[in-house]
């Protein structure tokens, strides 16, 4: 059935492609945050273990919102490791860094997702896609605030 939500197909496609990158970055950051939750050690263990759990839980829930918006626009959401790896700007961490390095990488990760989300915003605005703009605004607020909070731990 044809989609007629008031957004041209070419715009829906461009927005879905941008959101697919946001989804991939969010998934990459989710995996990194969850891994750091499992593997953090040191004097800040309890604080970071709990903080990372709150962060990966928020990221996990965001994945569904982003993927469902892609679907509402009429396109399939990427869902494989290879698709995410090709689309994500966040590099995986295969080692177990020290706690401060974990924090630094997570700051960089949240900033990367913010940049990826911000890049989709003009396309969504031009197409009068308010639901996507709202989703992006919410994601930007969360990632910028989380990056600030994590960055504060390094000072």
From TrEMBL:
PROSITE patterns: DPS_2. Residues 17-155 form the Ferritin/DPS domain. One of its GO terms (molecular function) is ferric iron binding. It holds the Pfam family Ferritin. Belongs to the Dps family. This is DNA starvation/stationary phase protection protein. It comes from Azospirillum thermophilum. The lineage of its organism: Bacteria, Pseudomonadati, Pseudomonadota, Alphaproteobacteria, Rhodospirillales.
């Amino acid at each position: 059935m044809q989609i007629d939500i008031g957004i041209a197909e070419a715009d829906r496609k461009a927005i879905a492609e941008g959101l697919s990158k946001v989804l991939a970055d969010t998934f990459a950051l989710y995996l990194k945050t969850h891994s750091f939750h499992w593997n953090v050690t040191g004097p800040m263990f309890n604080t970071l273990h709990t903080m990372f759990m709150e962060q990966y839980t928020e990221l996990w829930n965001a994945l569904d919102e982003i993927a469902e918006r892609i679907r509402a626009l009429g396109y399939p959401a990427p869902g494989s490791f290879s698709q995410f790896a090709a689309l994500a700007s966040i590099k995986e961490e295969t080692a177990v860094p020290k706690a401060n390095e974990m924090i630094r990488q997570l700051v960089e990760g949240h900033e990367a997702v913010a940049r990826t989300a911000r890049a989709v915003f003009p396309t969504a605005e031009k197409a009068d896609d308010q639901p996507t703009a709202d989703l992006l605004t919410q994601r930007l607020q969360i990632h910028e605030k989380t990056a600030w909070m994590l960055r504060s731990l390094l000072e």
